[in-house]
Design a protein that fits this description.
heterodimer; A: alpha+beta; Aldehyde Ferredoxin Oxidoreductase Protein, subunit A, domain 2; 7-stranded mixed sheet; 6-stranded mixed sheet; 30 helices; B: alpha+beta; globular
């Protein structure tokens, strides 16, 4: 445990040191293509060009960023969408030649004064969902990419042999280099490359290099994540943050990219050249002070990171346990944040980009690996964050050390902890019911709580095990559902209802049964069920602040738009509402954190020199959000059927679940469904389940109706050309595609509301084709 | 590694001060090559209840562990020093200084602080300022936040 006030060079982490012949590794490199570019200055947050690299052809070129692009797409994820639209086809799949992997920055990315300003936004067509997946990730790569001269990096095609793509922002050279000898697993590879590409043999020089890598398991599964490094000068090790969701690491390895390397020379606090650096610094310092004064009384992020959520979720019956069957568990206190606090090394600053004083990137140093190829090695484990702990509670793993083990191997193998944990929890439930068994699971005893077996599954995926179960399991919950159904091993409805995925992507770690709005927050999304679009559980379930469909729909409009905005700018969402001003509760809309929204208005204006309002920020997001939805439609998805969620997310699937919360559900039958106490008493659990099932499915459909209407979409969830025009889009190809789809829906009877409305209820609109009157 | 045991810090004799602010002017000369004083000075003299107070860094170094790039170090003479060339202007040290003695001027992005150079002491016509030597062990505190503390 390291205390404060120890000189940086004297920190000791006790991790295993590696001795590699880096000269030999480096000399095995062969430059396959290279490109010299003129370094330019970033101006008001924009480098004003993007970098295109084609791995198949070796073409490397710059593309200009136009004012029109900034106006319509703002930056970051917006630029990614625009570049994808220009490059892919509606038939493009994750492993198509033309599929791209994009890493984008955003105009506020790389600012050091405002906490949470170092995010990269990654986009690609996902192997899990076969639509666009976007991921927001920390680490130094995004800021360095911009300081090296580019607002975005666009990778297309596939290399024929393992390569690294190097962006040398010091010299102004981009190169594709064959790299046969490096390791593939991240904790080793990122260390090798950081040492190899640092200009000098000093920690300060190594801190100017950032690596994007994945791992061995990414190439054999659909859960591949991207690890973004940030070199820690105190721990003297490259640490990592993950672009976890949707298998972007799988795409990286499919392109035969071992790693991306970016390095920069000197930069300072105004390398983004903001229009008004004075205001920017003032807003930033105000937030630093707020974090200093209040974090310990609010989320305690600086001490334990997002892990502070575990005890809260457990208390509110929201912590996913045994594949979301339950929301709390008697053993849960074993993994509350104080348990991890004991393990974390206290070295502040723990931000994943400079100046992030929220400092939630917690770390365990000198962890001794218990299984697999690195057994006995002492390593630094980044995390675990809440989602990783939740993924483990979902598998009923209640030992902090096993959670670290799972965390470490997922990271170094390049696997998303969320997808892997949620999917394995589903396999475990199937195992409990006998639908899967040891034989069907290639010898793995995947029962709840068997951490050893879960780790063995990861090791076998990383080894490229070819047995049937490992192959299917590595492709995630959706494919395993299909596999079980096809084998006729279990009742189809049970399998569909319990495998927690939507659109092909596994759920993140919150129990949503009692919050309809949060069900929408997971289902009515662009990329699939994750927690970055909306988190409405407390507002909806605990505070009952949005009781009507209309109010829920307003929340499912505002919050996804607001949260999208962070991704357009290269920001982290956490400093928005994981710290609140002292008087926030007394404001008109505490859940929006109005003072922080105003901070962001001032921040974007100070950077870009624009004169935007808080409404303009939402408009920026609405453009990109609708564009992404429209692209999903273009790819044959993005409609009501794709927004469906399994029943486990809506309510109790099994009798055991019902009985475990009997009082709650019985009360709902009395109050919400107006059954008489006598009726309820007479009903079997199965009958009660059926009634709840119908009721909750109906509620979800009505919610979707209200949300689609609020967002300016058709009842089938298609963005209307009228809405797109209102947002300023004139792209004829896009508008025609949407109109054609809506016309086809009309023929197929899909432009009808999904909910069944009683006499006293109203659908969002009684007018047919209501959007046609919109100007 | 040898660590400094002592450091010089400013001591203020409030009863002698007449509020001429020569100290601030001398300080801004050191940091910004101007006699503006005020927000460009690391030492600030304020009047409160007819008495003058001094506000300046006491070299306890709680900021050392805040710097993400290692630009803040304790020099051999014990002074907490910000290396401008390394600083990336994040203002974490400014925001987290418990006595707001790490300062940010509008003139540049990098913060600045008292370096115990004695310029202010030398110019004070009333001899209200003095540099005194103290034990570092007496002023440093553990920086990281203890859970439940």
């Amino acid at each position: 445990m390291v205390e404060g006030q120890i000189a940086i060079e004297e920190y000791r982490t006790g991790i295993t040191k590696h001795h590699w012949d880096l000269k030999k590794i480096q000399s095995a490199h062969k430059v396959l293509a290279s490109y010299l570019y003129k370094k330019g200055e970033v101006n008001r947050g924009y480098a004003n060009r993007t970098l295109y690299v084609n791995l198949s052809t070796g073409i490397i070129q710059e593309k200009p960023v136009t004012d029109d692009m900034k106006k319509k797409f703002t930056g970051g994820r917006g630029f990614g969408l625009k570049l994808l639209w220009d490059s892919i086809k509606p038939t493009t799949r994750w492993n198509s030649e033309e599929n791209e992997l994009l890493i984008t920055t955003g105009p506020l990315c790389g600012t050091t004064q405002y906490a949470g300003s170092g995010k990269s936004l990654c986009l690609s067509i996902s192997p899990s969902t076969n639509i666009i997946c976007d991921c927001n990730v920390g680490g130094f790569f995004g800021p360095y990419l911009k300081f090296a001269g580019f607002d975005a990096l666009e990778l297309q095609g596939k290399a024929r042999e393992d390569v690294v793509v190097v962006i040398d922002g010091e010299k102004g050279i981009v190169s594709i280099e064959a790299a046969p000898l490096e390791e593939i697993n991240t904790h080793l590879l990122s260390e090798q490359l950081t040492q190899m590409y640092a200009t000098e043999n000093t920690d300060k020089s190594r801190q100017k290099v950032s690596i994007v890598s994945s791992g061995l398991a990414a190439q054999h599964s659909y859960w591949g994540c991207l690890n973004f490094s940030f070199y820690d000068i105190r721990r003297k090790v490259p640490r990592i943050k993950q672009a976890g969701r949707g298998g972007l690491g799988t795409v990286l390895r499919d392109k035969k990219i071992k790693a991306l390397v970016v390095k920069v020379g000197r930069f300072d606090g105004v390398s983004n050249h903001p229009a008004d650096p004075i205001t920017l610094a003032k807003v930033g310092i105000k937030l630093h002070r707020e974090i200093r004064n209040l974090d310990r009384y609010q989320c305690n992020m600086r001490a334990v990171g997002t892990g502070h959520l575990v005890e809260i979720m457990d208390a509110y019956d929201l912590l996913p346990t045994e594949n979301y069957r339950f929301g709390s568990f008697p053993k849960a206190s074993k993994i509350y944040s104080p348990k991890f606090y004991e393990l974390f090394t206290k070295i502040i600053p723990d931000g994943c980009w400079h100046g992030c004083t929220m400092a939630c990137a917690k770390t365990v140093d000198g962890y001794t690996v218990m299984t697999g190829p690195y057994k006995g090695e002492k390593v630094t484990v980044d995390g675990p964050e809440y989602e990783t702990i939740g993924a483990c509670s979902n598998m009923s793993i209640w030992d902090p050390l096993w959670i670290l083990e799972f965390n470490f191997y997922c990271d170094t193998y390049g696997i998303d902890t969320i997808s892997a944990g949620t999917a394995i929890a589903f396999y475990m439930e199937m195992y409990e019911y006998g639908i899967l068994n040891k034989e069907r699971c290639s010898g793995l005893e995947l029962c709840f709580g068997n951490a050893d077996a879960a780790l063995e599954l990861l090791h076998r995926i990383a080894q490229g095990d070819t047995s049937e179960f490992i192959q299917v399991a590595a492709r995630g919950a959706r494919r395993v559902k299909d596999w079980i159904i096809q084998k006729n091993w279990g009742e189809k409805q049970l399998v569909e209802d319990t495998g927690m995925e939507s659109k092909g992507l596994e759920f993140s770690e919150y129990v949503t049964k009692e919050s309809l709005a949060m069900q929408g927050g997971y289902g009515l999304t662009l990329k699939g069920p994750q927690h970055d679009e909306a988190w409405l559980i407390f507002m909806d379930m605990v505070n009952n602040a949005i009781p009507t469909f209309q109010m829920k729909a307003e929340a499912l409009h505002y919050y996804p738009m607001w949260r999208t905005w962070f991704g357009l700018n290269g920001l982290c969402k956490l400093p928005w509402n994981d710290i609140e001003p002292a008087n926030n509760a007394e404001t008109a809309e505490p859940s929006k954190v109005p003072e922080h929204v105003q901070n962001y208005v001032e921040y974007q204006n100070a950077m870009t020199g624009w004169n935007v309002t808080k409404e303009d920020l939402i408009l920026q997001s609405e453009r990109c959000y609708n564009w992404q939805r429209a692209m999903n439609v273009w790819m044959g998805r993005g409609q009501r059927k794709d927004d469906w969620i399994p029943f486990r997310a809506m309510g109790p699937v099994t009798e055991m679940e019902y009985l475990s919360r009997k009082e709650r559900y019985d009360t709902q039958l009395l109050e919400k469904l107006r059954k008489s106490p006598k009726d309820v008493e007479k009903m079997t659990v199965r009958e009660k389940l059926t009634i709840l099932y119908e009721f909750r499915r109906g509620q979800y459909n009505k919610l979707a109706d209200a949300v689609y209407y609020r967002r300016g979409w058709t009842p089938n969830g298609i963005p209307t050309p009228q809405k797109m025009r209102q947002l300023g889009f004139t792209d004829k190809k896009m508008l025609k595609m949407l109109q054609d789809k809506i016309d086809a829906d009309e023929k197929n009877g899909l432009n009808l509301w999904g909910g069944t409305y009683a006499k006293e209820e109203q659908p969002p609109s009684n007018q047919k084709r209501y959007w046609e009157t919109w100007k | 590694m040898d660590h400094p045991k002592t450091v010089k810090i400013l001591k203020f004799h409030a009863e002698k001060c007449k509020g001429c602010l020569e100290c601030e002017k001398a300080c801004s000369q050191v940091h910004f090559k101007t006699k503006d004083g005020g927000e460009k000075s690391a030492i600030r003299i304020k009047k409160a209840d007819k008495k003058y107070t001094m506000h300046v860094c006491d070299q306890r170094g709680l900021c050392l562990d805040m710097c993400p790039v290692g630009a803040l170090t304790r020099k051999k003479n014990g002074v907490v020093w910000l290396e401008k060339e390394l600083c990336i202007g994040c203002q974490a040290c400014v925001g987290f200084c418990p006595i707001s003695a790490m300062r940010k001027s509008d003139a540049r992005i990098e913060p600045f602080k008292c370096i115990s150079c004695g310029s202010c002491v030398r110019v004070c016509p009333e001899k209200a300022l003095e540099l005194i030597e103290i034990q570092i062990a007496d002023i440093t505190q553990v920086v990281h936040y203890r859970l439940g503390a």
